[in-house]
Amino acid sequence: MTAPRIGFIGAGNMATSLIGGMLQGSFKPNQLMASDRSDEQLERLGRQFGIHTSTDNAQLARDCDVLVLAVKPQVLQAVCRALPNERRAGQLVISIAAGVTCSSLAEWLGADTPLVRCMPNTPALRGQGVSGLYAVERVSDQQKKLTETILNAVGISLWLEREAQIDAVTAVSGSGPAYFFYLMEAMIDAGEQLGLPREIAERLTLFTALGAADMAVHSDVDSAELRRRVTSPNGTTEQAINSFTRDDLPGMVARAMQAAAARSAELSKELA
Hints:
alpha/beta; elongated
């Protein structure tokens, strides 16, 4: 597929981000299509990106080489069950719907469907996302590379060996942005309590988070070593770290992420 046609069913924020990122890369507007129930959403997409839009999912499925399912998990079954007779043979289907397993998708779309299940996260809206990917055996190496190209348009992607690992990805990166936002909230509040104007506490917190993440991403050492380098003996940072340790911050994080992973697994069963 030298110029594959990619069709998005669902035209919400994640689909919009992926389309925008793809157009900034190697894809052309005539390669991308989107369908949605909302005429307003489709008009916005067409105006913003110059791509073909439709309210007809079946027509879109007939016209594309790759189908990206970007609708809410609760409506995905109904969407999929309407498509098996419309799809091209061997058409790759990428699902970014949280909690819907490949076995459910295969039941709704057909057992011979090449499927990739994807768990992206919200920083994809800013081109800084990370996605966990799992492919069934029917997905070819070429289709895997194409999936990477699509998801890497809004960040990075990592392949998983087992579908069950999607629950861990959900706990780490899918829900992860909220953990950092929660910590930022607490730091801003604490800075204000220490006497800073809230606006200054907020700017200090946000840009410290941005700088720390950038250092960690581009460093040749792990985050534990970066922390040690900032933590001078008997210094101010050490006092804060000691307080975190006494309150069992590592245990709190582990328990929270285990709860997120468990809920992810529960949702998969509910949605099946």
